[in-house]
Amino acid sequence: MKKSFADMIIGIVLLAFLTSLAVQVPAIPEVSRGYPLVLLIISYVMTIWLLVTSVLKQKKEEKQETQVVEQVKIIVPYCLMITVYLVMMSKIGYIASTVLFMIASLIYLKLKNKVVLAVLSVLLTIILYFVFTNFLTVILPRGSWFNIAF
Amino acid sequence: MKRKSLALLMAAVMMLGAAGCGSGKTEEPQTEAPASAPAADAGTEADAAEPAASGDGFYAGKTVEMIVPWAAGGGADTACRLICSYMEKELGCTIVINNVTGGGGSIGLAQLTGADADGLTYAYFANTDSNGDIMLEGVPYTVDDFAPVCKFAADPHIILASNASGITDLDGMIAAGDGRTLWGIGGAWTHWDFLKLEFEEATGTSYKRLVYDGGAAVITDIMNGDCTVGTPFVSEALSAIDAGEAVPIAITSAERNEACPDIPTVAELGYDGFESTMWRGFVAPVGTPEEAMREFAEAVGTVCENTEFQQAAVQAGVTVDYTDYDAFQDFYKENHESVKTYYETNSDM
Amino acid sequence: MENIMLGFSNVFQLSNLLVCIGGLFVGVLFGALPGFSATMAVAIFVPFTYVMEPGAALLLLSALYCGGVFGGSIPAVLVGIPGTPASAPTALEGKALVKRGEAGRALNLVTLASCFGGFVSSAALLVCAPLLAKIAKMVGQPEQMFVAIFGLSVVVMLSQENLFKGLMVAFVSLLLATFGQDPVEGFPRFTYGLSQLTGGFSVVPVLIGLFSLPEVFKMLEDPLGKMAESGKVGSLKLKLTDITHNMFNAIRSTIIGVCIGIIPAAGPDIAAFLCYNEAKKASREPEKFGNGSPEGIVAAEAGNNGVTGGSLIPLLTLGIPGSAPAAIFLGAMIIHGVRPGPTLFTQHAETVYTMIIGFALINILMYFVGMFFCKCGSLILVIPKSVLATVIVVLAVVGTFATNKNMFDVYVMFGAGIIGYLMLRNDFPTSPVALALLLGTNMEKSMSLTRTMYEGELWMVFSRPLAAALAVFTVFSFVFPLVKMAGDRKKKQAEQEHKGE
Q: What is the pTM of this model?
């Protein structure tokens, strides 16, 4: 994978993002349109410049050895786990989802010691829940399917 | 292997230690009283600690969640915590203040409309909130999603002029209303904007709108003369007035304010019936049982009669003004329509 | 003077001392845990203080505030994750220090610098509050605008190696800062129809995600390893030269910190970046910055703790809060019937001097509490990365949720984390994002206000002495790094000529 290839992808994604913003500009009242518009134009110019240079570089640059594939293999599933954790938080409540996430995460990251794994997950969750609800009067997310609370 | 489990053990101990520190120390203020007890009476915390078992109504022994859509420590939060600490004693329940902030107040109110209508969830509400769906984008509620409960305060603004402007009274201010004098606003389409429109309508003047982020910024600029007039709340304005850094012109409530009895009202100075205050009240999700809301509103009424509460309110800059359940229903609708009209005719200035 | 003595005797009451120490412990803990911040510590404890004596209440809040601002630097040095945004510059240096086995010494140095900054700022509060209040009053919107632009100029210096990418990140982030209601009409811009975006992105969740999650993802690449394997803490002992070399640096940073504290729109985070930047400009070894420079961390930490006392000056003398936590102080003081403003020092002298003397004492006590935490904190390095990563994710989630109590912010935090990791892997610097988000909103606000004030005669802005001075600084601050870079390229000696600055 070439370094400039990544830059090229980033350039394209940014361009799409900027365009999604540009579409919304006409709706903004005139008094407060100028400032974001100027920023938008500068960002466009810089992104296009990045895109052009990365395409040009790509022809010259040599292929580099990277571990992108290995990294992706570890990180993408982990991000999915976090996403599931966040979504479940409003379904099964803070306690259940956090305990499950911690257990899953520690297993996924190959922690061998099962006792530490279980104790840490339950203990940290309970402590956090206790401190937040009782001392800091923060109501942590409650589940809509079921909820564990005390 | 041995070393690894040692490390893991250490990790666990540390977590415990850290949490222990946290909870151990937090206990210190905690033991003195519950989360939200009144100000200025550190001596009486003992009776505040246990909700009196006096209430045997719907709320006795229950936990009520009060959603405040603004940050802890701000004006709305201060007023809310103050009244709720007295409400706990009155209703015999626990009230948990939940500061759900973000989205210009719309996230907290959206959470309220999604809550169960069981009489155990209320939210703090003010002038412009019922028009959220018109003023903001993507707001999932309308005026009909709320069941209005009651109003407990109506905070007047003090019209201040900068020393540099040479304006010393209302006549001078009206004379300066030629469309070029700068009028500081504490935030776009908050009550400050509506007050300006109402004032201009009543006096036939016009001023140039200068939108700041919060009342403190307006006062700073009035002090250094960058901004000519502004309309901060009483609690914000008093230190500047005491220091002689700004000139008080008039107060916008119908009657003079206890905290600053020397400042005349706009109505007194020749504009009969002029009144423009930022009111604070409570709403529940639509469908909440009426008996529960009535009991809640009555408790608010009793607290508002309490002299101890009234004193604390003056100190906190809250002007107590109670409207009961029945009267508030009409008030809520009228207010909604009036805000809507002003907004629709003026929002594209 | 009488009141000062009274303040002394109040502070040294056992109950008040306990309040200070307790507040410091909790504050440092809040600062040190990723996802928890100084502002949050103060905000969460405000309700507790309603039942305390006014003096004790203000001491507790002060201790939380000072502790929180300092606490962020511990994880910043050890794991490269700033506990609060104010320690972001410190985190740039952390990793390399651990690798070289100098983390212990760095922690001690950071603690010392923080206490120094905090202590001097409280002395400023005691001695020259009235004078500084005059300056605070001169800071209007045009001045704030230049301060914001000045703050942004740090980007140029921070991303010298990759100026183009740094600037690009800054501009796109400034654009992100315009999301939400515009400052004049309150029209919700760029919300994609989401009501949650009406107020724009809240900065804290974005920064939590941006700074902590990328480090978590890096840990995942080798989950069974320990941080300790890539380096060690080393001794906590300081050398005499550490102090002598950094003395001037710490004094300069503290002064900048106090001044930034006075200005309403900028807080400890901006001060830390500015001080770091100035230290880099003044340093004899600027190439060490980013590779574990003790000068960098001393500057950042002395600077951000200098803000603590500075931000209380306009609050106490004029009733104008100089930072987010100071705004919460204001709420607490009003509830206690202690209204800040000119009358404060006459009507409530006892309370105020208790607070100011306490503030100084808190910063001294902070050294001992801080060293205790540094010793405990060093154990982080022996925890397996798998455990550390999991715990950080859980803390970041709960901390973000507790900030605004809404799930949307948690998703924003997570998204910012992923983007931050991608940026890191592709050599896009992340600190410009922090600067742009922290300054962007204020910059637009003060620009639009200045424009309305001076409609049609914008050049009149330069008739304000402070604004004109700041404008000159700003221009200089943008040009200096560029000139220096050009000079470096031509000849190495060029560095010597600019050393004076």
A: 0.85
